[in-house]
Amino acid sequence: MPEIIAEKLSIGYRREKPILQNIFFRIQKGLHILLGANGSGKTTLLKTIAGLINPLEGRVLINNFEPYKLKRKEAAKYIAYTWQNPYYGFVEARVIDEIKFILRTTGARGNWEIVEKLVPRELYEKNPYMLSGGEAKRVSIASVLVGDQDIWLLDEPFNDLDYEGTVSLLEIIREARRRGKLVIVSTHQVPLMDQLKPDKYLLITRKGELIVNDWHRLSDDELVNAGVLARSMICGGYR
C-alpha cells in the first residue's frame, strides 16, 4: 500500500528561514488535497516529498525509503510529480517523444489511456515548447502520469486547463483513486475538489503550521484563516 510519512520535517531552501518546521503526518492510498495561500510552501512541500529538494531537517519516507536519496530515474518509478509550470519539465522536441521519455527512463509499460484522455493525436508531432498554455499542461501531466506510478503529486494541475481538459483530469484522478494510488493535489479550487470527495486535506496556515484532517471536516473559517478562498465566496464551478 502506498504511504507517505513525514517525521520532524522542516522544509525550505538553504540559507533561508524554513517555510515549514517540525511537521508530522502520515497518509496512505486515496485522494488528499494540499491547500494554502500563494507562497505558503505547497510547491516546496511537494518537491520535498518527490525528492527534488532535500529536507532541512527530519525526513520523508515513501514506502519506507527516502526519495531524495535515490537517483531521479529510480524515484520516477514510484513517484509522479507534475510541474505547476508545464514547460519546466519538457526535455524532448516532439510531444510523442516527451510522452515516451519517462517510459524509456523507468522501463514502465505505461498507461496510455491517460494519454488518450488528455493529449489529442494532432499534437504528437509538435514541439512541446511551442504549445499553448493549456496544451502544454495536458502534455506535461500526461507525460508524467503515463508512467503509472503508485504516488501522484500534482502541483496546481487544473491551472490553464479548459473545461474539457478539467473533466478529463477529474476522471483520471477518480480512476487512480479507485485503483489504490496515493494522490496529492495542490490547488486553490476547493469547490472543484468537493466533487471528488477527497479523503483528507493538508492545510498550510498563515503561521506555517500544517493541519491534516478528514476532508468533510474542512470549514470555511479554516480556509479564510489560511488565506484560501472559502466555498461561500466562490460562485459557479464545474458540475
UniProtKB/TrEMBL annotation:
Its main location: membrane. One of its GO terms (molecular function) is ATP binding. PROSITE patterns: ABC_TRANSPORTER_1 (PS00211), ABC_TRANSPORTER_2 (PS50893). It comes from the Archaea. It is found in: Cell membrane. Residues 4-232 form the ABC transporter domain. GO terms for cellular component: ATP-binding cassette (ABC) transporter complex. This is ABC transporter related protein.
